[in-house]
């Protein structure tokens, strides 16, 4: 694409989608979980090194299932970053639990372990960590905290499929982990997600929860003659058509990650100098993390300069966008949750962060984006 507008995201097709969808249709078995789902789940289990994984309709569904698996109950507290998508909090609120919002680390924008520690009370049951921009949160510090205080640790790894920290994959650290395959994510089925369960004690119940509260998994394994209602549950099952699409994406996850990383690195190389000159900050993932190139953002010095750069790029047909409205200051966040400690970094990121277009196939349009940013910097220098 060399003219016209440059969107923020664009779904990348690997070319295998129609073939696998055709296989699913030809099999005549469209309800899940079938062969296509089983394929995806094996790939995810292998990638994460987890004992159990299920593809589910969304990361939101996986987060909701995690809240049930942890037996969250009214009045329980769950510590989480305020700088996250609504689903992280909404999932625990559905169980009557109270999200306790804490600030994020200024470098990674992931939950700050010290702020999390300060937020733990006698009512705290879990920490939900988010891997923002695919950069895995400080899971060592959070796991130490969780162990010391007897808490569960859940990974909201919506953005982190294919990322690692200290060589360990995102999704391998938590009691459970939740991935998103929404259309804005690196690997997608339009809508979609996965629940990974790392605690073997929760595996059997996860299978029941996913399949309308029944032990149909046991039935399909030939362990019982008929299946029946066993526990809480819902239909968190994905059609084989959707699973077939996802399969085509998962098979190419490494290539997608490599392409996105090279675009990410292209931005970093071109924008290091203006960052050094103080126009903005660029991401600086810690050396122990290997991210998946999900997001490249600029952190402007103030809200006015973000607006100015955003408008400058929009005039050139380039879509650049902020990230989250912090949960501690959103209407439902105020109603259902509570902040703990200052929110300085979260509020600053909400006002000043601008994401740049990043998708496989961006190609020469990346230079249009970079030129737009550099041109804006030059204009600021002249005005100063
Ligand atoms: C951090 C985080 N959590 C959860 C979600 C929800 O994912 P889904 O749309 O698959 O439910 C998102 C989606 O953007 C996200 O970024």
Automatic annotation (TrEMBL):
Statement: the UniProt record of this protein carries the keyword Transferase: yes
Gene Ontology molecular-function annotations: dTDP-4-amino-4,6-dideoxygalactose transaminase activity
Swiss-Prot/TrEMBL keywords: Aminotransferase, Pyridoxal phosphate, Transferase
EC number: 2.6.1.59
Top-level taxon of origin: Bacteria
Keyword Transferase: yes
SUPFAM superfamilies: PLP-dependent transferases (SSF53383)
Transmembrane segments: none
InterPro entries on file: DegT/StrS_aminotransferase, PyrdxlP-dep_Trfase, PyrdxlP-dep_Trfase_major, PyrdxlP-dep_Trfase_small
Signal peptide: none
Family, per entry: Belongs to the DegT/DnrJ/EryC1 family.
NCBIfam families: PRK11706.1
Name by which UniProt lists this protein: dTDP-4-amino-4,6-dideoxygalactose transaminase
Taxonomic source organism: Albidovulum sediminis
Gene: rffA
């Amino acid at each position: 694409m060399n003219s016209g507008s440059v969107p923020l995201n664009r779904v990348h097709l690997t070319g295998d989608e129609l073939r696998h969808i055709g296989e699913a249709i030809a099999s005549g078995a469209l309800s899940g979980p079938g062969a296509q789902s089983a394929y995806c789940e094996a790939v995810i289990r292998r990638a994460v090194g987890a004992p159990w994984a299920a593809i589910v309709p969304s990361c939101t569904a996986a987060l909701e299932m995690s809240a049930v698996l942890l037996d969250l109950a009214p009045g329980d507290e769950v510590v989480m970053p305020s700088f996250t998508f609504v689903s992280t909090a909404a999932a625990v609120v559905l169980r009557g639990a109270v999200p306790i919002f804490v600030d994020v680390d200024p470098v990674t924008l992931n939950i700050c372990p010290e702020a999390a520690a300060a937020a733990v009370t006698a009512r705290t049951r879990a920490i939900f960590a988010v891997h923002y921009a695919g950069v895995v949160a400080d899971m060592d510090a959070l796991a130490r905290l969780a162990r010391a205080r007897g808490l569960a640790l859940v990974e909201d790894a919506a953005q982190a499929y294919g990322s690692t920290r200290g060589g360990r994959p995102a999704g391998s650290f938590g009691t459970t982990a939740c991935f998103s395959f929404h259309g804005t994510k690196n690997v997608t089925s339009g809508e979609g997600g996965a629940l990974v369960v790392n605690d073997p004690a929760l595996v059997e119940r996860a299978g029941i929860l996913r399949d309308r509260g029944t032990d149909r998994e046991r039935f399909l394994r030939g362990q019982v003659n008929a299946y029946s209602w066993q526990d809480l549950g819902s239909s968190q099952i994905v059609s084989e058509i959707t699973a077939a699409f996802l399969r085509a994406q998962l098979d190419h996850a490494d290539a997608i990650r490599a392409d996105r990383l090279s675009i990410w690195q292209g931005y970093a190389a071109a924008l290091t100098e203006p960052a050094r000159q103080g126009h903005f900050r660029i991401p600086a993932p810690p050396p122990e993390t290997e991210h998946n190139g999900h997001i490249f953002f600029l952190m402007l010095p103030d809200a006015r300069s973000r607006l100015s750069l955003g408008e400058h790029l929009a005039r050139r047909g380039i879509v650049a966008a902020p990230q989250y409205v912090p949960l501690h200051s959103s209407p439902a966040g105020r109603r259902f949750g509570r902040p703990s400690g200052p929110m300085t970094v979260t509020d600053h990121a909400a006002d000043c962060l601008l994401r740049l277009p990043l998708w496989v196939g961006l190609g020469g349009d990346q230079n249009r984006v970079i030129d737009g940013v550099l041109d804006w910097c030059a204009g600021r220098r002249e005005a100063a």
